[in-house]
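Worked Example 4.2. Consider the chain below.
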Amino acid sequence: MNDEKDLRVRTKEFAHRIIRLYVALPKNNAVAQVLGRQVLRSGTSVGANYREAHRARSKSEFISKIGECLKEADETLYWLELLLDEKLLPANRLQPLLDETNELLAILTTISKRAKGIT
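Applying the procedure from the previous section yields the following structure tokens:
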């Protein structure tokens, strides 16, 4: 598998993990549900935007879509941190997702910089 396909698979698996996290949140806790919907939306958007980036018609469109991936990944990190801060799930359940989000941010930042010609 090439790197592009690997990241497509990785971002899709990330979305699945986010979905499972949302399902695990307490249904009777309004804060958990609000934060959960936010992380569900942003976390599943990362892979969708990455796929769109690879269908870009121009370099500038690719850079823009990668920028959307970064925005959604960073927002996901924010919501995950709030879930952790509010102790809505155990830290050991959230830490692997926090780590993966940070790794995706680093990868997407590198892709963005390279596409822009920044090293």
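The chain has one domain: 3-116. The longest helix spans residues 59-85. Compare this with Example 4.1 before moving on.
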